[in-house]
Amino acid sequence: MRLSRLTFARLFLRGLLGLAALSSAQAAPRKVIVISIDGLRAKTLAGLQDRHLNTPNLNEFLKGGSVADGMVGVFPTVTYPSHTTLVTGVPPDVHGIFGNGLFDPQHTMRDAWHWYAQEIRVPTIWDIAHQKALRTAAVSWPVTIGAKIDANFPEWRIPENLEDRLLYEDLCTPGLFTEYAKAYGIDVMSSPSTEQSEADLDAEATRMAIFLLHTRKPDLLLVHVAETDHEQHMNGPDSEQEFRALERIDHNIGLIRAEVRADGLADSTVFVIVSDHGFESVDRSFHPNAVLASMGLMGTVDHPERWRIAAFEGGGSFGLIAHDPKDEEAVALARKTFRRLASEDSWGIDRIYEGEDLKSTGGFGNSFLAVGMRPGVSVGDATSGPWLTPNVNLRGMHGFAPGPVELDSSFLAYGPGIPAGRLGRHNIVDVAPTVAHILGFDMPGVAGQDILSTVR
Question: Which terminus, N or C, of the chain has the lesser number of Cβ atoms within 10 Å?
Fold first, then answer.
């Protein structure tokens, strides 16, 4: 069929206009909302539509967005090192957050976790965004107390009394919590409820996110919700309780989307759904500090300061740390003991990591030796008694060495300029540079890369 000159000219002009519109859309500034669903396995997210759950928002994202088959995690696959990798693009040995909790063998601190951003050794995505004059905000994102985030509700322990609440108010961006409390009619001088469920905490995080979207209009918003993690610990992965929690989180995502639409930003906002790790089912716990205590390497109740070797727990793995690195006798005894336990094949030990082998994992940089447990066996915290015990209230755990697909974390991007398709299997270090690319800048010196160009 031949086209008339007029028809050809019209089609040619239409094509130019389409290209111009596409170029404009690609060049237009985009906002990004990153929502971390703690513990959401990649296999659970990728197969969500087949489970027929009440998750319309995630289903829509899956249908129209870019989804990874899995994201290989860090070692250990626990929340705080993983979330720090999500925003830095480098492994724990580089960013400096080796586990959830601070190493405290003498138990001198209260609920001591890596809350503080000053511990992160490298630039984060919010640091670079700030340099690019972009507005940043965060809700309950780990390791963000004191971070250079424009509007920040950092993650901290759950307030148990009025003093805790007043302290949390000061840990937030100055004046932010007071403004939020006034908007929602919260009496900041009343004692907080000590019976808040994980669902309640996620609902409050959602309200905080909506408040920030409405009042601060951030270019980058980071939100962390954790009910799915809690339910998998208590009831195991693929449990009915986990799926009900995921439905509630999807509802909260819908509330955030409604705020984005109400603010007229739907056409410029990209949603990125991520997680920090997957999960394994467990039924037993191995207690390395009980082993060390039986050898006289741990301190006593009266003299905890006399410890020589202590375990740094990582959920499904642990590291060994020497009080004095020059204490060759203690180090040699600990090495010999755990190597022997691994060879006996009855304690749930999967692998010993030392030297270059340990260094290649990118984790446990504070330890002279690390131990990875087998699926089914978590790391316990007992300092006496049996070395291996059945679990009573624990059905799921993470923190094992990455590799098995059950431990893969999730990645899903949806919004303007995001192609629909599968991304294959990648690495959690790829998340930060990918989000940075959506925002229009690069993250120098990272271990990861932008993965949206790999969609198929």
Answer: N
